[in-house]
Amino acid sequence: EKRYPPMYRVLKYGVSAVVTLVLLCGAFFVMILSLNLQGYINIAHDVERWIEHDHPFHYPFLSALAEEGGWFDSKSDYMSFIPVILHAVVIQTMNFCYRHVAEQLTEWENHETEVDHQNSLILKRFLFEAFDAYIALFYLAFYERDVVKLRGELVSVFNIDTFRRLGVEFILPVVMRKFAEKECKNDDAKKKKDDDAPNTNDASTLKSEMGGEEYEEFDDYLEMVIELGYVTLFASAYPLASFIAIFANLVEVRTDMLKLSKVHYRPRSIRTDSIGMWKSVIKCIIWTSALT
């Protein structure tokens, strides 16, 4: 490139990697706190293994809260879900924050083409959100080596994420759209009263449709890929996940139709020969699932 030396972009790649790595360390720390609160990290569960040295990730004051009679008693049918829900909320918050960080970093990298820009953004966001979603499962499977804990964590996280996705993707936007339509009608009524001008239904409908949000397929792709990982990476730990995923996807097909027709305005049609970087991401998950 004559105007932008490739070496500058390589240096920016390094900066982006360092920033992402620091944030991933924060996500790992949050995961450790969550597993302690759920009682999954406890020396008493494997005394022989930790009799000679301390557990590096065990925080007794947190794991004590998951013991019988504690705030988050692991045997309780309700209180034991609070740490899982809190962890899910923190994960979504971190993903939301990193989304803006990734967009800024990718823009700063100054890619030559739009395809390179999108591929870089996909790679960043997938690595971060996949780490957030799967790190606890890999930790329980390969470090704690406890299938029972793995199954419990997978069931909780997968089910909560499924219901969260259905609610956030459709119910919340529809409610917000209803409020927007109500405000639009109130504004039209006020304008008609002030100006004594006719209020046509066509103009009101057009204004309502233009008030919809722009549809972005990026998040839909990302959520489907993350769900694929939940189903395939640890299929033996939670075989029912595939059936739940099928049911959730059938429901989501209908909600996406309503979302595209009622919540968002019509997206632009862009011709393409493949799904791009997402195909490589899916291949990576499939190959990894063969090892797990």
The count of strands amounts to 0
How far apart, in Å, are the first and last alpha carbons?
43 Å
Structural class label: mainly alpha
Percent helix range: over 70%
Count the DSSP helices: 9
Question: Main β-sheet, in a few words?
Answer: none
What's the SSE pattern?
HHHHHHHHH
Work out the strand percent: under 5%
Average of per-residue pLDDT values: 80
- Whole-number total of structural domains: 2
Describe the structure.
The structure is a single chain. It contains 9 helices and no strands. The mean pLDDT is 80. With 292 residues, the protein is mainly α.
What are the main properties of this structure?
71% helix, mainly alpha, 292 residues
Précis, in short:
This protein is mainly α and 292 residues long. The protein contains 9 helices and no strands.
Topology:
Elements: H1 6-37, H2 60-63, H3 81-109, H4 114-143, H5 147-195, H6 201-210, H7 218-233, H8 241-263, H9 277-291
